[in-house]
Amino acid sequence: MSETAYNFGYLDEQTKRMIRRAILKGLAVPGYQVPFASREMPMPYGWGTGGVQVTAACLTPEDRLKVIDQGADDTTNAVSIRSFFQRTAGVAVTGATRDATLIQTRHRIPEAALTEDQILVYQVPIPEPLRFIEPRETETRKMHSLQEYGLMHVKLYEDIARHGQIATSYAYPVAVEGRYVMDPSPIPKFDNPKLNDCPAIQLFGAGREQRIYALPPYSKVVSLDFDDHPFVASKADHACDLCGSGVSYLDEVIVDDQGGRMFVCSDTDYCGARVAAGQRGRLSPPEAA
Amino acid sequence: MPAEQMDIFASKKALAAPLLSVQGLTKRYGARIGCADVSFDLYPGEVMGIVGESGSGKSTLLSCLAGHMAPDAGSVVFQTAAGPRDTVRMSEPERRMLARTDWAFVHQNPRDGLRMGVSAGGNVGERLMAVGARHYGGIREKATDWLGRVEIAADRIDDRPSQFSGGMQQRLQIARNLVTGPRLVFMDEPTGGLDVSVQARLLDLLRGLVRQMGLSAIIVTHDLAVVRLLADRLMVMKGGQVVEQGLTDQVLDDPQHGYTQLLVSSVLQV
């Protein structure tokens, strides 16, 4: 059901080349924010225009695409981007992390381990980790080039002073290969350790801010912390109520007006596969006899 | 100034090389002169005042010295730990490193020198973290210590500077600058905009810190009372030129240049 009126992947070839050049530069300088001429996409900013452009530049007709939004394959953002590429590129799509060659994600890293044959594309709202402490872009660029990252720790210091611990729970800043400090996009800090030494190529696209950055496979990615307040990858202290997994990242869902709640895996593919394999959680429906 | 005190300075100068040696510093704004051909030496432990009316080029001079602005000609040789270096020709990373460690800059308006959205403790700790401190407890302990030294109650450590009075903000700015133990402090009208009693306490505090830590300082001000109290040596500027320099008391009590005479006689007597 490909729409032949569009070039493969919606963007024209020149634009894709421009984006690929930015991606290559990003891979050559891990963590560095490469400016690129972001295009208007047929979706509003904040809906993944950066990620979509990176995906479009990376897609080949043989690719199998998976799109997730907060871990789920079936939420609005994921469904619309997936159907966008089905229509404009006619590529195969999948929900299974293992089967996908290219995964576009919003705010999660899949639970299943990624492989060298995969590319993970992140949608990034604000690529500049220093933005909220130093609003001047001219100044933050200088700080990056001179590796002046003391301010990043000021932010963490403020967290501890105010909350007794590092309260930053998502978009937790990381240092890449001992050089650039990078915003890992608003993934929960639970996912931060997965950025490190990852076999897959990780690409980050920010459409409104016109920046692309990248982590080549097996990059060293360290979450910033203090010696006496080390980084902790936290998650809700529960097991999934559907599949019983005690190690996956959980969403909290309010189920009634009496404060009833359940915790479910945010990664629907991971959870679904476990349920299919016969795993059960606290609120699983009783087995069909 | 008593004779034996002058002898102390004389022996100091004989012992040490100048901490800062400025030669022919010139900055132009197009056809206008910011400051022209300024030369002086500053020795360790010495406090120099720069006075002059608005537009006389004293702030331009200070910005050039502190590396905030690139001068058009001249050299500013600073005695770094690894020997004398011309900071004008230094690479920017080196200069910024110097600005975080051996130098300090106290702005006239604390809003320029503080992060208003960050707590007092964070403000003091920033320089420590910028030079690699990564132990929260240690940073906090040092911040508490410095807040005490500038007479800010320890329980205000988590308050933001926007909740502080003007005098407290200025004291916080001083603590933030001195926490890394700099050797040279640049001050641009440190008491400007404060009322007299607060000014007096701030000056008292500054004088104590300067003596206690053996700091060298360059203070730009238009307030002659401030230099009388703090500065060993005085430089008078007019129209971008240095018109007179010498020991503070000597210049103020026996001004030679016509402009200095005017300046001294213009001070209101209460």
From TrEMBL, chain A:
A Pfam family this chain is assigned to: PhnJ
Domain of life where this protein originates: Bacteria
Function statement: Catalyzes the breakage of the C-P bond in alpha-D-ribose 1-methylphosphonate 5-phosphate (PRPn) forming alpha-D-ribose.
GO molecular function, one term: 4 iron, 4 sulfur cluster binding
Keyword 4Fe-4S set for record: yes
Organism: Fertoeibacter niger
Keywords attached to this entry: 4Fe-4S, Iron, Iron-sulfur, Lyase, Metal-binding, S-adenosyl-L-methionine
Membrane-spanning residues: none
Keyword Cell membrane included in the entry's annotation: no
Family label: Belongs to the PhnJ family.
Known EC number: 4.7.1.1
Biological process annotations from GO: organic phosphonate catabolic process
Name used for this protein in its record: Alpha-D-ribose 1-methylphosphonate 5-phosphate C-P lyase
Substrates-to-products reaction catalysed: alpha-D-ribose 1-methylphosphonate 5-phosphate + AH2 + S-adenosyl-L-methionine = alpha-D-ribose 1,2-cyclic phosphate 5-phosphate + methane + 5'-deoxyadenosine + L-methionine + A + H(+)
Enzyme class (EC, first level): lyase
Automatic annotation (TrEMBL), chain B:
GO molecular function, one term: ATP hydrolysis activity
Domain ABC transporter: 20-264
Keyword Lyase: yes
Gene Ontology BP, a term: organic phosphonate catabolic process
Pfam families: ABC_tran
UniProt KW keywords: ATP-binding, Lyase, Nucleotide-binding
UniProt-listed InterPro entries: AAA+_ATPase (IPR003593), ABC_transporter-like_ATP-bd (IPR003439), ABC_transporter-like_CS (IPR017871), P-loop_NTPase (IPR027417), PhnK (IPR012700)
Keyword Nucleotide-binding: yes
Listed name of the protein: Phosphonate C-P lyase system protein PhnK
